[in-house]
Design brief:
The protein is mainly alpha-helical. The chain is built from three helices and two strands, in the order H-E-H-H-E. The longest helix is centred in the middle third of the chain and has 27 residues.
Length: 96
């Protein structure tokens, strides 16, 4: 019986996680706070999260699965924080 392909499984899970995050960005609804300083922070968090998403894709392509996972997790944390503050609305959907 052949061994389990953990690297292949991790790569596929990362692809699904990245794809789900792409869908979140495509469908999210922004509800910016009225305060200009808070709106700026929301925009900065969204911008940073997009950078982390891009970084995750880059590292996945390079085969650095650990760094890719860290980047996508940071991305999710930033947008989830904005969602928890009521600044964003979206649903996570995983396919495949």
């Amino acid at each position: 019986m052949p061994g389990r392909d953990y690297e292949g499984e991790a790569r596929e899970k990362l692809r699904r996680y990245i794809s789900a995050t792409d869908r979140v960005f495509a469908t999210m609804i922004r509800s910016p706070p009225g305060d200009a300083a808070l709106k700026k922070r929301m925009d900065e968090n969204i911008s940073l999260s997009k950078i982390y998403l891009s970084d995750s894709k880059y590292y996945l392509e390079k085969g650095d699965l650990v760094t890719a996972l860290v980047c996508i997790a940071y991305c999710e944390g930033l947008i989830d924080a904005c969602k928890n503050l009521g600044w964003l609305s979206y649903e996570w959907t995983f396919t495949g």
